[in-house]
Amino acid sequence: MEQPEGFNLAERKDFVCKLKNALYGLKQAPRDWYARLDHYLQQQGFKKRVSGSNIYMKMDEDTLLVTLVYVDDLIFARNNDEMSHEFAQNMSKEFEMSIIGELSYFLGLQLSQTTVGMFISQEKYLKDMLKRYGMEDCAPMITPMTTDCKLGKDMTLVW
Questions:
Q1: What is the CA radius of gyration of the chain?
Q2: What is the pTM of this model?
Q3: 3-state secondary structure of 71
Q4: What structural domains and CATH numbers belong to the chain?
């Protein structure tokens, strides 16, 4: 670490400035933003999952909308297109945001959606890692875990 430009103490070269405010012109602290978002989602009928404080679910009769909050991104999935569009419109009115579209790549995961279901792969991430470390031509290995397990409706593994 070094002292910032304009803050030079010749006798104390080991002193640096302590940050007291958020950087980069943020209008509010991330904690305040999350608290506002949390309050808004719960007002809209979403229930926060105990297993993950950043996962919210809303059920209306036979429709389900699940929202994942990751830093300043919201990812939502639904089983009803109308509910999804309504949610996107309401969020755009309440918060400054843009709708990017169908999720295809997130946190190193490739996602593809079909009428059968959603498929998750790390193929691109793994290929990038192999290329980064010069191992593109290495010999493949079998998957080190069982491939015959499935997720149940309650998101637990079914064997």
A1: 22
A2: 0.56
A3: coil
A4: 27-101 (3.30.310), 105-140 (no CATH)
